[in-house]
Structures are given as C-alpha cells and as structure tokens.
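Retro notes (design track)

What went well: tokenization of the new backbones is finally stable.
What didn't: we kept losing track of which sequence belonged to which structure.
Fix going forward: every design gets posted as structure first, then sequence, in one message. First example under the new rule, 417 residues:
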C-alpha cells in the first residue's frame, strides 16, 4: 500500500513555503511521525512527519522548490517495511549504566529495561533525549496520550538548563552558495536569501515607507534592578526554575508605561487608530536564520517568573526551529535588546503594524551625578522608535521617562504608581 506525503495546510497568512531539506532519500526506511522534510515559510520552519512507517519510495519535489498547501511531496510504500518491523520494534536506548557508544542505535543494551515513557517519544524528541542523556519519563508530553514532541524536550532543556538549546536538532542551513565567480583574481559568491530573510527585508522597507518613524532616547540607571537581581537571583531560580534576568523588568516597566500612554500600544488601520486594551509584548530573538519576534501574551497579568519562563522557552524553541506561526503574530508592542551583542546605541525599526518599539542596549559602568556627587553606575541607553502619525514627541518622551522611573525605582511597578 502506498501512502502520500503532502504539504500540511498552511495558515491563511502564508501562501506558500520553500522545501529546504529532505532528511531521507528514496529507499530509506522511515518510522511513523519521523521528520521527513523541512519547509521554510516567511516566519518559521515546518517539519513534515511521516504519516506511516514504511519505505520512502519516491520524492516528488526537490530542495529549493516552492510548494503550496496539499501539494504532493513524496510517496511511502507502507507494506515494504513489514520485514523490518521486528528490528524497529525495539526503540528504547539505555542512557544510564552503560556508555551510549556501546549500544547500537535503536537497540536496548542487553539486560536493560526500557526507560519509562520512551515509547511515547517522537523520533526527533528521542534523538535529543539520547544526545543529552535525559530520562524520558521526566519530560512532560503535550501531544495525544502524553506523546513527547521535540518542542517538549527543548522546553525541558531550557527550563533545566541542562545543555544549550543549540544542541538540539540544528536549524536547516540555507542553500549552499553558488560556485564562486572569479573576476580579476577576486572572488564573489551569490547566495539566495532565505524566506525569513526576504520577509524581514520586506517588513523593514514597508515600515520605513508607510510610517513616519522617529526615535527618541533616554538613559537609565540600573543600579536598583542590579541590586534586586543580586539579592534574590538564587532564591528566585530555586523557587521558579528559571534565572531572573533584566528582560522581565523591562517588560513590566513597559506594560505600566503603555497603560499611561495608550497611543504607543495602538496601531493604524487605514484612517482609523486601533487602541489595544491588552498587552501582547513581542520580544525579539536572534536565530541563525534571522530575527524573529515571539509574543508574550497578556503580559500585564504575568508575574516576573512567568515572563522569564515564557521568554526562555521561546528563545530555546526559536533557535531549535520548533516555534509555531501562531506564537509570532498579533503583538502590540516590541522590545529588542541589541545590548546582548554589545550595541551601545541604535535606532530600532518598528515591527509593523505596531506603532512603537523599545531598544535596549549594553549596560555599561559610566559616571553619573547623584545628589551632587559623581558616582559610577550601571547605565543603559534606551531608544523608542515610533510612528509619528499617531504618537506625538511629547508622548514618546514621557513614555521613556516613565520606563526610566519604573526601572530606577522598581517598587513603583509593585505599587502601580
């Protein structure tokens, strides 16, 4: 019996995708739910799992081709796997009491009992579990009947901080560069943009051509926040299982400031202004494929721990290529942190259709005047780029001042002052 492998139904906002990488070739055996091919959209990389175990009989679409929803990608011969079924039945791998090098892939060590929950691991999740010597029973599954997906394992790793998320399945590499063209002894290479890079370029140009963008700056003394983190970071991590970073303070400060200046949380739709009475904060995450912005939903109702967990989970899954399209859309305001790369000052571009974006930068010890005396403080420049069509300079400056006040006196956020 032959089984067809087709492009899954793409969201309405995405018309097509590019086939990036086949992980199997004709004649290879495949397991049910094993990832066969990666499809790159404007926002994320989608995995297409095998609908049935069998032998990959034929590939219909090669790497680099644009595909649409429902298009035939490959054919699996389900009956051909019958003779190999006994060998494939043993899927547990012992990760304690024996070296992984001494056990054949997919076969349990002699006398060893299968790990609890190993049978509920998807192939991609199983691979990450084996690589990082995890106990499968310790990973919570979000799939049907508790099935553990790759995203579940990556989330578990990020929360436990056992290993960097980058050790999970690598994000598909862009197509190999064309052969170098030699001109007068100098080399040039022409490399096609990834779908994500093309989309980023389009949105950046769109924002600058349709919005009246202006940037205002301020400077924040982060001594109070640094002291809070130093005082409570160990207790915070023990209780909540995640580190207390600076981003949760900035998200909280921005939410409180947005409540005071609703135009900064608004967007333009034709001749109308849409004022959002909720706070979905986008947090920019850099990946090997480019910058993406997952959304922290209803940030005004989240605790510091909830925000830190959400950001850590998004960052790990974004870099592992397992973040979903739904998690990237609908934000009302964005925060980006160029300081992680050493940027001292920049002018970020608004993530349309939003109307403003806050840029964080490098924390640097600088002299500051406090009560008439010159002291050294951990300072950060902040930048707010905004759409001047609906946000006045007065509102932008006051927003930045408000964020500064909340960060320099964090008790104001607790007391909602």
């Amino acid at each position: 019996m032959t089984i067809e492998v087709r492009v899954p139904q793409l969201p309405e906002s995405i018309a097509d995708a590019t086939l990036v990488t086949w992980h199997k070739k004709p004649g290879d055996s495949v397991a049910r739910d094993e990832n066969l091919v990666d499809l790159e959209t404007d926002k994320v990389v989608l995995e297409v799992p095998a609908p049935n175990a069998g032998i990959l009989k034929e590939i219909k679409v090669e790497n680099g081709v644009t595909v649409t929803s429902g298009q035939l990608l490959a054919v699996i011969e389900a009956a051909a796997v019958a003779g190999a079924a006994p060998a494939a039945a043993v899927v547990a791998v012992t990760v304690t009491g024996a070296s992984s090098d001494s056990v054949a892939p997919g076969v349990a060590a002699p006398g060893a009992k299968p790990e609890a929950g190993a049978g509920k691991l998807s192939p991609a999740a199983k691979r990450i579990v084996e690589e990082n010597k995890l106990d499968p029973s310790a990973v919570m599954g979000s799939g049907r009947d508790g099935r553990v997906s790759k995203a579940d394992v990556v989330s578990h790793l990020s929360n436990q901080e056992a290993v960097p998320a980058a050790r999970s399945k690598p994000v598909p590499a862009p197509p190999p560069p064309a052969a170098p063209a030699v001109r007068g002894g100098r080399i040039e290479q022409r490399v096609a943009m990834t779908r994500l890079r093309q989309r980023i370029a389009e949105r950046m140009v769109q924002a600058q051509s349709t919005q009246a963008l202006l940037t205002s700056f301020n400077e924040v003394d982060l001594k109070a926040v640094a002291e809070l983190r130093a005082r409570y970071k160990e207790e915070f991590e023990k209780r909540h299982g995640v580190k207390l970073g600076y981003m949760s303070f900035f998200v909280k400060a921005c939410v409180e400031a947005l409540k005071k200046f609703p135009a900064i949380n608004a967007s333009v739709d034709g001749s109308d202004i849409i004022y959002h009475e909720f706070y979905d904060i986008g947090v920019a995450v850099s990946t090997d494929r480019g910058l993406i912005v997952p959304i922290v939903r209803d940030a005004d109702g989240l605790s510091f721990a909830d925000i830190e967990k959400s950001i850590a989970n998004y960052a790990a899954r974004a870099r592992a290529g397992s973040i979903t399209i739904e998690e990237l859309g609908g934000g009302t305001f964005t925060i980006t942190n160029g300081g992680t790369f050493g940027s001292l000052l920049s002018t970020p571009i608004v993530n349309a259709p939003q109307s403003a974006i806050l840029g964080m930068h490098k924390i640097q010890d600088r002299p500051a005047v406090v009560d008439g005396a010159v002291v050294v403080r951990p300072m950060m420049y902040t930048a707010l780029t905004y759409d001047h069509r609906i946000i006045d300079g007065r509102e932008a400056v006051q927003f930045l001042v408000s964020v500064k006040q909340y960060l320099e006196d964090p008790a104001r956020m607790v007391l909602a002052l």
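Added context from the reviewer: The chain has a mean pLDDT of 80.
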